[in-house]
Recover the amino acids of this structure.
């Protein structure tokens, strides 16, 4: 996904001379194609996220289309108030690109886990939030960002749910159907869609047809599609590599509660705790009940 | 424009409007009035008919709580109708206490949370260099404000990238909400600090218009400039001068009458 991001950015920056890339000293083994091609449009702001967002804002006020590359919670939480007062209030063309979504940085520890970043950012007016599940979704989302002259937050992982075919006609702000189901559907956001896909495929082989959907755009979320699915399915499971507070699960619950749709919603994600266990992403997903084993156990308990 | 006349008018407006609206920050407004008057009256290049002219000089009031000084200056140089000031701080107005760009032509950036405007000014200065524009970017920070780490994060960037189209003005009145700045987070070494971050630094009397003009227009090739303007909080009103309480207090009827008289605004 990160490679897709940088390749798409280089392609776009070739056409749009106003594109500027900032970093807070992160992005080796990723940003080089941009830096080599556009050295005069790349600035390392140093380990200084607040200044980075302010500088991005000043550049955007002067007509630049600015991308800021960082690790999730560094830019979204350290500099949240700068995003609020400068980028969002002034409706600036600034995109925060946040790698290491969820617990991808596993054993590095909780300071490097972006597990509550969306909650704060989602409350900011004018902000869009994209959390693509795969390289293909990332490419699609990037096109949407290129056509959007306003604030955006892009949440990325190194590797996502690859090997899937994007349905024809899918668009970045849709809820994307990968498998249709009968009574139960999983709505996932981000790379953790892979766990939902494994769940769907495993249960299918056992005679159960579970819907699997991706939500690459958390805000603005496609409300009509969510309402439709919440009336189609009796059970909706949300899955996110993020706190269940403030991200996808919250968004779906809000829509279901307000629309009176029939689905019962169960949120899978981090249950209001720090991911303080030491382990790789897969181990942490398993421990915090965000993997396919946990989903399968839950769904079987519900349906069997 | 006569900057002395502009400063006098800003001060009179400020006392009138903070009294009428029961608004705070009069001490801070009076502290930086002369700086704002010299900037808008003599230093900044702009076109009142088109405050978005791409070649204009930019000014960001980073100490956004003194926003009224900018509103008043913009009204008196002809950017908007001075009648608009009468609604300051009240329902239906676009003039919030902390300076806002929404509905207010000429205000480059909304500020109020300290340490933010200066970072945006650095971004604007960088854009000026990238776009090969000749405009200059001025920003005004308070000496209490510069305890914010983001001021130094962005100062480091400006120094490293030699943004010599940037001028950071420090309104150094040595006071903040709880008292003396030096007792809270000392800024007595502010000259050395800016110098260490790659700035040219000049100090001046922040109420002397000639000194201010000379400092604000100083040639500073290859480095950003910091102007340390020594000021008096509450300048122009005897009972407010050097009193930290006037950061947040509002004048009562009696104080209002005295202040207005001292500022030369009594009818």
């Amino acid at each position: 996904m990160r490679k897709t991001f940088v390749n798409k950015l280089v392609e776009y920056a070739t056409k749009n001379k106003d594109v500027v890339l900032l970093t807070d000293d992160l992005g080796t083994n990723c940003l080089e194609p941009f830096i080599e091609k556009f050295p005069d449009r790349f600035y390392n702001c140093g380990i200084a996220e607040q200044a980075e967002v302010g500088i991005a804002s000043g550049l955007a006020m002067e007509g630049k289309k600015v991308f800021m590359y960082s690790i999730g919670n560094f830019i979204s939480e350290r500099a949240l108030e700068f995003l609020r007062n400068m980028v969002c209030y002034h409706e600036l063309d600034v995109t925060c690109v946040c790698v290491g979504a969820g617990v991808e940085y596993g054993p590095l520890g909780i300071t490097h886990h972006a597990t509550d970043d969306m909650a704060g950012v989602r409350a900011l007016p004018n902000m869009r939030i994209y959390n693509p599940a795969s390289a293909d979704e990332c490419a699609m989302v990037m096109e949407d960002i290129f056509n959007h002259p306003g604030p955006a937050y892009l949440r990325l992982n190194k590797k996502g749910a690859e090997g899937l075919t994007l349905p024809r006609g899918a668009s970045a702000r849709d809820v994307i159907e990968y498998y249709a189901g009968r009574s139960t559907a999983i709505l996932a956001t981000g790379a953790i869609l892979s766990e939902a896909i494994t769940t769907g495929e495993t249960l299918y082989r056992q005679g159960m047809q579970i819907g699997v959907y991706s939500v690459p755009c958390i805000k603005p979320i496609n409300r009509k599609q969510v309402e439709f699915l919440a009336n189609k399915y009796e059970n909706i499971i949300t899955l996110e590599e993020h706190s269940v507070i403030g991200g996808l699960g919250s968004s779906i619950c809000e829509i279901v509660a307000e629309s009176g749709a029939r689905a019962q919603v169960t949120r899978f994600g981090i249950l209001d705790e720090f991911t303080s266990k030491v382990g790789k992403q897969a181990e942490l997903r398993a421990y915090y009940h965000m993997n396919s084993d946990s989903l399968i156990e839950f769904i079987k308990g519900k349906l069997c | 424009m006569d900057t002395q006349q502009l400063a006098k008018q800003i001060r009179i407006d400020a006392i009138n409007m903070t009294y009428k609206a029961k608004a705070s920050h009069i001490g801070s407004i009076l502290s930086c009035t002369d700086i704002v008057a010299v900037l808008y009256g003599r230093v900044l290049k702009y076109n009142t008919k088109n405050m978005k002219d791409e070649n204009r000089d930019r000014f960001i009031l980073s100490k956004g709580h003194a926003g009224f000084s900018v509103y008043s200056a913009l009204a008196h140089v002809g950017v908007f109708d001075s009648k608009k000031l009468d609604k300051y701080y009240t329902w239906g107005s676009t003039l919030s206490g902390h300076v806002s760009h929404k509905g207010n032509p000429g205000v480059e950036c909304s500020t109020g949370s300290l340490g933010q405007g200066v970072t945006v000014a650095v971004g604007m200065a960088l854009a000026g260099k990238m776009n090969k524009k000749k405009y200059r970017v001025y920003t005004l920070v308070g000496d209490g404000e510069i305890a914010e780490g983001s001021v130094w994060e962005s100062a480091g960037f400006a120094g490293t990238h030699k943004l010599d189209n940037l001028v950071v003005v420090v309104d150094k009145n040595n006071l903040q909400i709880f008292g003396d700045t030096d007792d809270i987070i000392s800024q007595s070494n502010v000259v050395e600090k800016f110098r260490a971050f790659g700035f040219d630094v000049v100090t001046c009397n922040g109420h002397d218009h000639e000194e201010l003009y000379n400092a604000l227009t100083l040639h500073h090739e290859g480095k950003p400039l910091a102007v340390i303007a020594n000021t008096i909080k509450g300048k122009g009103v005897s009972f407010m001068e050097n009193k930290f309480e006037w950061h947040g207090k509002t004048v009562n009827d009696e104080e209002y009458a005295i202040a207005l008289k001292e500022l030369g605004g009594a009818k």
Q: What stands out?
A: The mean pLDDT of chain A is 97. The domain at 176-303 of chain A is CATH 3.40.50.920 (Rossmann fold).
